[in-house]
Amino acid sequence: MNHVGQCRLCPTHGELVKSHVFPSALVLDLGSEGDRARVITTEPGIRERVIPSGWHGRYLCDGCEKKSKLYDDYAIGFLRRPLSDAVRKHASLGAPALEWSGIDQGKLKLFALWCLWRASMCDQPEFEKVRLGSHTDSIAKMLRESDPADPEDYATLFVAYDTEPEMLLTPWNRVRRANSTNYWKCFLHRYEIRIKVDKRPSPPEHAEVLLGARQTLLTPTRSFLDSRLGETVGEMLAEHRRRGQG
Fold first, then answer.
1. CA distances from 68 to 17, 181, 215 (A)
2. Which one, of 24, 231, 51, 196, lies nearest residue 118 by Cα?
């Protein structure tokens, strides 16, 4: 079946190809012992289901899809690296962090922006609330031009979790920091990815951990089991088992 239409990123009108919100290779990593990845949720209106290769839609031409894949492939290599490859450091405010050398931070930032933009285009229920509003065109321009821009432009950071939540993926959620700055964040593999969608500056504690802010990449680290995310996931799994669906 042909899917013909207007590419949502460039002027091309033609066949629209399948585009995954998150790389299918990373979604396949979520399965274990032959199991396939599945959605577990307590969110009203979203059913629990198997997602063999993840969420996808048709909103890109072949050329734009191939461009996005360059960043997907780079990020897959980084996200699959063991945390032991990095050097343990402390960020300036004393928070534990990992220091990575030889990382193309521009590619990682564009990867994160691709994932967020694709989510905003996806019509599946898990992404119904992902709307970028006035930021849509600005992000699309960065993607078309493969331009990560200044570190403060859609400031992006990765937070590494030091246990074993690589079996976890959470769709994008909008959050507001204490200084009222707006962010989108998701959890992918072992990392929480945050993108600032706000003209206000990043909080001071983010200054040296933004992608592109320094020559080597710093990723703050947290314990998954001791985090609010870990607590929320535990509650969801308990509810899932209570329903007799585990």
1. 12, 28, 24
2. 24
Q: Which of 59, 54, 22, 52 is nearest to 35 (CA)?
A: 52
Chain position carrying tokens 């600032």: 196
Under DSSP, the state recorded for 48 is: -
Spatial neighbors of 99 by CB under 8 A, at least 6 apart, are 86, 87, 88, 89, 216, 217, 218
What the block records as the tokens of 64 is 């734009």
CA angle 117, 118, 122 (to 5 degrees): 125
Interatomic CA distance for residues 202 and 51, integer angstroms: 35
> CB–CB of 143/135 below 8 Å?
no
Residue by residue, pLDDT tens for the chain (246 residues) are 678 999 999 999 999 999 999 998 888 777 654 555 555 555 555 555 556 567 889 999 999 999 999 999 999 999 999 999 999 887 665 678 999 999 999 999 999 999 999 999 998 888 889 999 999 999 999 999 999 999 999 999 999 987 665 566 778 889 887 667 899 999 888 899 999 999 898 888 888 899 998 889 999 998 877 777 777 766 666 665 666 654
HSE, CB side, 13 Å, CA atoms: give it for residue 71.
Answer: 24
